[in-house]
């Protein structure tokens, strides 16, 4: 009896130990499953703080003596004759503001350091006071794309400052009360703008910019290209001291800027400078550079292309003969590819500038 009871007790203890062992290994997977489920839930992220306005200059300041600043234009000056005009640029001034207390509608930066001085985009305006004994001048100069790439010199009273590149289309200056204030573009033929009046200071060697002798579009000759429809040429011209493509003419000379338009077959022509020249007073003046005349289909069967030809001539010239002697290559279209030949080889038209 005792051995039987002993065996039963051993069996019960063994069963109890087995169940504990099983429970231990069941709890571990359950805990792992719970941990995995918890980790799969998105962890709440802290909301980033709302951006606070960046620190910026006060909306109203007294500018320092001899300040030279610039601002973005709120509205470009109205269209009209340029106050200053150069080779590839023009400044169109609007009404200049002068006084001891003025505002602009955009922030003002120091043109010498590039640092913002007054105003910000949150308040949308900048109120400025002139220092004692001085006054403010705010002068709009046109659109940003019109600003000259050349350095400018700003003079106010007995001070002057050269700015390598003008980047803001509105000038903001403090100047001695009543003192003259000017801006000079230093690009080979310096031109000066009076910043108080918005008017240019006349200069003889740039006068052609403001009253250029010109000839309106005039029909020219018909020139045939063997194997293709002929070219019907026309031209217009004006005489100016400088062009964006070639800069300024030499002293005593000017550029005869001739716009040559051709119509006819669809052609792509590469023309040498000897294709055009101007004859006047027994002398011949060749065009500079080379030209690509791309005549693309415009309407129906007519193709049109235009180029601006630059010919350096004496600045006093007013009449002469434009000579067409087209030479170069045919590079595509109905005119084919190869050396360019024309019939006739030479044609002319009369130019009279007034």
TrEMBL record:
<feature type="compositionally biased region" description="Pro residues">
    <location>
        <begin position="45"/>
        <end position="56"/>
    </location>
</feature>
<feature type="region of interest" description="Disordered">
    <location>
        <begin position="42"/>
        <end position="85"/>
    </location>
</feature>
<keyword id="KW-0732">Signal</keyword>
<feature type="signal peptide">
    <location>
        <begin position="1"/>
        <end position="40"/>
    </location>
</feature>
<protein>
    <recommendedName>
        <fullName>Lipoprotein</fullName>
    </recommendedName>
</protein>
<feature type="compositionally biased region" description="Low complexity">
    <location>
        <begin position="70"/>
        <end position="83"/>
    </location>
</feature>
